[in-house]
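Tutorial, part two.
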Amino acid sequence: MAKKIKASVKLQIPAGGANPAPPVGSSLGQHGVSIMDFCKKFNAQTVDRKGETVPVLITIYVDKTFDFILKTAPVSELIRKRANLKKGSSNPGKELAGVIKWQDIEEIAKIKMPDLNAYDLNAAKKIIAGSARSMGLEIKE
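Running the prediction step on this input gives:
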């Protein structure tokens, strides 16, 4: 028999760095989930992704058990790493924060393809390029 879903929670947590402090503790504690159990499982699965922010979708059931799905790193983080930036432009469209190549955009699109709402690689590249432009980056060939 299928379990009845109580809640669904989305969080962005540093890889291997989940702890009972907020946002994890406050988000899961209100649903009665064992916070330490989640932290141990999450940290074990993300130990090889140190330095990344990992989006996670947690499904909480009525019997206080949970499942979670790990997603790929946010697009903005991947773009900042490829372009060697600390942050995007504070005034995109008017000020340039840096430059990124189409080759880098294609590599990011391949990484993010499972999480994007795109049918093919070209559509995924357009999504990534739009994010790069909104961060104030110029796209070069």
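The helical segments are 24-29, 35-45, 75-83, 102-112, 121-134. In part three we will examine how such features are distributed along the chain.
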